Amino acid sequence: MLLLYTEDFQQRAIATKDWLHSELPISPAVIRSEALSSDFSADPMNPTIAVAEAKGALNFAKHYQDTPDWPDLNGPSGTPAMKAASGILQAIAS
User: Fold this and answer.
1) CA-CA distance, 31 to 48, in Å (whole number)?
2) CB-based contacts of 31, cutoff 8 Å, min separation 6
3) CA gap 40, 83 in Å, rounded
4) Are the C-beta atoms of residues 36 and 42 closer than 8 Å to each other?
5) 20-30 core/surface letters (b: 16 or more CB in 10 A; e: else)
6) What are the pLDDT digits (tens) for 5-19?
7) How, if at all, do strands 2-5 and 32-35 pair?
């Protein structure tokens, strides 16, 4: 599981990781928190940067993916730009 966050949400990412571990039978070792670029942190509404960040995260996640698995992108608490990027990349990755 890969949690993406902007620089100003690092503490919330840590809290989310802790919550996932406490509420679900998921080892903390399989939950990775990754900060997005400072460019996206500075301009989280920029769709071009959002797509680049989401694509980079998808490529990063593929290194940890087992062959029969497929990525499931979910950005319910993200910015509108990141939500759109996640939806586009989900369609491409499926």
Assistant:
1) 27
2) 1, 3, 17, 20, 21
3) 13
4) no
5) eeeeeeeeeee
6) 888 889 988 998 898
7) parallel
| Whole-prediction pTM | 0.72
pLDDT, tens digit (0-9, with 9 covering 90-100), for 38-68? 998 888 888 888 888 888 888 888 887 776 7
32: β partners: 2
Phi and psi angles of residue 92, each rounded to the nearest 5 degrees, phi first: -70, -40
Q: For residue 8, what are the contacts with CB-CB under 8 A and spacing of at least 6?
A: 41
User: How many separate domains does the chain show?
Assistant: 1
Alpha carbon distance 4, 69 (integer Å) = 20
The set of residues, in sequence order, having a beta carbon less than 8 Å from that of 78 and lying 6+ positions away, is: 4, 86
Supply the range of the domain harboring residue 53.
Answer: 2-93
